[in-house]
Specification:
- The protein has 101 residues and is mostly helical.
- It is 74% helix and 0% strand.
- It is built from four helices and no strands.
- The relative contact order is 0.04.
Length: 101
Amino acid sequence: MTDLTLTLPPAMDDYIRERVEVGEFTDPSDYVRDLIRADQRALGELRALIDEGLDGADDERTVDQIFDEVVTRHRRSGWETAAAWIGQAAENEEEAAWRQF
C-alpha cells in the first residue's frame, strides 16, 4: 500500500472520526477506502447504463415518446407526489422569506 495525505475541513474530519468511533470503520483509512470502492461501483453502474443506452440507440421511438414513457413510469412510482412536495416546500420557503420583511 501507499500513503496518501488528505487535508480536510474540521467538520469532515470530525464526521469521519465519529463514524470510526461508533464502529462503522476501523480507522479513517478504512472509511476512505470504502468511499473509493462505492465510487468505483457507482461509476461502473453508470458506464453500464450508458452502454445500455448506446446499445438501444436503434430504438425507433421519438424523444417525445420516450419522455412520455419516463413520465408515466415515474408517476406510478410516486414522482408526482415528490414533485408536489418539493414545489410546496419551495412555496413555503418563499412565503417564510416574505414574512421576514
